[in-house]
Amino acid sequence: MIKLYHCMSARSFRPLWALEELGLPYCLEMLPFPPRAHARAYLEVNPLGTVPGFRDGDTVMTESAAICHYLATRDGATPLSVSPGDSDYGLFLNFLHFGEATLTFPQTVVLRYGRFEPAERRLPQAEEDYRRWFLARLKGLVPTLSSRTYLCGERFTVADISVGYALMLADYLCLAERFPQDVANYWLRLQSREGFQRAMNAQLRAARDQGVAVTPAPLTV
Hints:
The model has no long low-confidence stretch (mean pLDDT 97). The chain has 9 helices and 4 strands; from the N terminus they run βαβαββααααααα. It is an alpha+beta fold. Helix 1 links the parallel strand 1 (2-6) and strand 2. It starts with a strand and ends in an 11-residue tail after the last helix. 51% of the residues lie in helices and 8% in strands. The radius of gyration is 17 Å and the shape is globular. It folds into 2 domains: 2-79 and 195-219, Glutaredoxin (3-Layer(aba) Sandwich), CATH 3.40.30.10; 89-193, Up-down Bundle (Glutathione S-transferase Yfyf (Class Pi), Chain A, domain 2). A 4-stranded mixed beta sheet has the order 2-1-3-4.
């Protein structure tokens, strides 16, 4: 049985969303945020104390985009993956990693120096600079989304999950109102997916059942 270690609406939402889209059975273990401080036993799963943590038999993984790729291909090709040889394969890999490396990274700086650090260590200028950095990087989506419903393969894939989580995080940071129109429309499409809604409900239900706070990790201070 697949086991996913997750904090409310943290990066681990990516594999949770993929699991729901694929309809795979899984066990969801909710952790208080940040787990490295509030769930020390979890360090045995991931010594960094970050989520996601993921187990599938002997396979252990901790990178959200990589787990999504693994899930989409573990049993052979699925509609959520794009295969080598497909004309959009390079585009698929690029957007899969763009979501984390280019879009999520600057937001982690915004979170750290705008919310998570004690008041005396916060850096308003760094927070604002990295907000602008994130918004500027959204320009990389516009040429594709101006003519496509999803990013690649003429269908929804885990590349959309990777980028979609970055947009979800930006929404928590009150940046959605500044999205380019094509990106804003895309974000609305992603939220309307049944898989997204099932994942949102699954984390809320599991948090309540396991006695974990339902406050999204990005809003935790």
